[in-house]
Design goal:
Elements lengths: L7 H28 L4 H9 L19 H14 L1 H7 L2 H11 L2 H12 L8 E2 L15 E5 L2 E12 L6 E8 L2 E8 L5 E5 L10 E12 L12 H33 L1 E2 L2 E2 L4 H29 L5 H26 L9 H10 L11
Parallel strand pairs: 1-4
Antiparallel strand pairs: 2-3, 3-7, 4-5, 6-7, 8-9
Helix pairs in contact: 1-3, 3-4, 3-7, 3-8, 5-6, 7-8, 7-9, 7-10, 8-9, 9-10
């Protein structure tokens, strides 16, 4: 049976993060979007909240409380504040969570303490590839065994690359099997070029090129045991679905409040049937997308196959996020096209969900 009521700890997390998103993230969102960079002070503040560290194993300094459902609640609330900042704040999970779940003992001992200590440390995950038929389950990037090493060749796109990134987790085809490899950011043969997108402009992202990058065999995530890349992709889709819901909810709420205040022909436009029905449809679709996300997260927490549920959740949330943010611009009318108001930024950010694949994990 599903329980749709957050437990006491989850309710506290939601309340805390909502206040943080409203008072800190919202205030920094526009400046980050214009500058194309995230404020380090804000990232440090998110680290102090223990958003990622709390999900890591206790033996490596974490809180030992990983939960995909809780992760989805966190992702939604942060994205309600701003999508780019949410992705940056949760970027440590892109490296830390895969290592915690699939890493060898040596990999865990080396990497996880970096994310449970003092100060914000970003993570990076490279799964998407710059081609029209990019398939995360069948990467074109190759990993060829060469004695006690692997040689990686290929290209990746939409890779988060915040200041301080010292290692990136790269998916590659290893003899017909999709695996992941821990690649130093300064490895010979690894080059990156800053990408410039319509949305999430505050999040530094790059295109990566791997030209015969040589890494030791021990850099393979899980070493000889390898990893279940599909589960990482499912986790990423749940995270993106939650963030899409957060962006949609933010757009709905700001347009709802505007409609209550904006008057036309002597009454608030919220009383006009065309606006009232549009807002009602937004609310219905957002709640439906959230339930799909929670179902997928619930299955992940129980170790069940969540491929279908995660895919449905992210596909629906992508569609709803774009529809709701576009609707918010329409409710605002001409003001919705002005950069001084939130709807235009919500719409630009939501437009990216169509091509996002693994920018976050839960």
């Amino acid at each position: 049976m599903y329980d749709f009521e957050p437990d006491e700890e989850q309710a506290l997390i939601i309340e805390t993060l909502h206040g943080f998103a409203e008072n800190e993230i919202r205030n920094a969102a526009r400046e980050a979007d214009e500058a194309g960079a995230l404020p380090q002070k804000l990232l440090d503040a998110t680290h102090e909240l223990g958003l990622v560290a709390n999900a890591l194993p206790e033996e490596h300094g974490g809180g030992g409380a990983r939960s995909a459902v809780t992760g989805a609640l966190v992702a939604e609330e942060l994205a309600w504040g701003d999508l780019a900042i949410a992705l940056g704040a949760l970027s440590p999970a892109l490296l830390a969570l895969p290592v915690a779940e699939f890493g060898s003992d040596a990999q865990k001992s080396e990497i996880l303490p970096r994310f449970t200590g003092t100060g914000f440390r970003p993570g990076s995950l490279a799964i998407s590839e710059p081609r029209h038929d990019s398939d995360p389950f069948r990467p074109r990037t190759t990993a060829k065994r060469d004695g006690d090493a692997y040689i990686l060749s290929g290209a990746k796109t939409l890779v988060p690359w915040l200041d301080g990134t010292d290692r990136v987790l790269v998916s590659a085809d290893d003899g017909g099997e999709a695996q992941a490899f821990l690649v130093p950011a300064d490895a010979d043969g690894l080059s990156h070029e800053k990408a410039d997108f319509m949305g999430i402009r505050g999040l530094p992202t790059v295109d990566l090129v791997l030209s015969d990058v040589r890494v030791p065999a021990a850099a393979r995530l899980g070493e000889a045991a390898g990893c279940d890349l599909g589960r990482l992709i499912d986790s990423g889709r749940v995270a993106l679905a939650a963030m899409a819901v957060g962006v949609a909810r933010a757009a709905f709420e700001v347009s709802r409040d505007y409609a209550k205040e904006r008057e036309a022909f002597g009454s608030p436009i919220a009383t006009k049937q065309v606006i009232a029905f549009k807002l009602a449809d937004m609310a219905i679709e957002i709640d439906g997308a959230r339930l799909l996300c929670w179902e997928a997260a619930w299955r992940l927490d129980r170790g069940l196959d969540a491929r279908r549920e995660a895919t449905l959740a992210v596909d629906q949330a992508r569609r709803i996020s774009l529809a709701v943010t576009d609707g918010a611009v329409q409710v605002f009318g001409g003001h919705g096209y002005i950069r001084d108001y939130l709807p235009e930024m919500h719409l630009r950010n939501a437009s990216g969900f169509a091509c996002f694949e693994a920018l976050a994990l839960v």
